[in-house]
Amino acid sequence: SAECRFPGLNPGTYAVAVSVDFNKNRKTDKNFIGIPTEPWGVSNNVRPSMRAPRFKEAAFELKDASQRIEVRVSK
């Protein structure tokens, strides 16, 4: 597991996307049809089957600086 903090964010609507860069090339590698080959996840843990998650699906309301979210990361 890992923890990321984003100090100084104002209340509002946000979405978070994360990936694990196993080969350290600073990008999320994808196969020939565009599906990630490295583990990834987004806020609200949405995982559409044949497209990238939309902002609206991953969006959450940040109410204050102490709020925490959890993002599951998998292939």
Topology summary:
Blueprint: E1 12-14, E2 17-19, E3 40-42, H1 55-58, E4 60-62
Summarize the entry for a quick read.
By secondary structure, this protein is mainly beta. The chain has one helix spanning 55-58, and strands at 12-14, 17-19, 40-42, 60-62.
Could you walk me through the main structural features you see in this protein, from its secondary elements to its overall organization?
- Helices cover 5% and strands 16% of the residues.
- It contains one helix and four strands.
- The model has no long low-confidence stretch (mean pLDDT 94).
Sum up the structure in keywords.
75 residues, mainly beta, 1 helix, 4 strands, 5% helix
Could you tell me the number of beta strands? 4
User: Helix and strand string, N-terminal first?
Assistant: EEEHE
Helix content percent band: under 10%
Question: What is the residue-averaged pLDDT?
Answer: 94
Structural class: mainly beta
Across the major sheet, the strand order is 1-4
Catalogue the unreliable spans: none
Shape by Cα distribution: globular
* Strand proportion: 15-25%
Count of separate DSSP helical elements:
1
Rg from C-alpha positions?
A: 14 Å
Largest sheet: 2 strands, antiparallel
Give the end-to-end Cα distance, rounded to a whole number of Å: 15 Å
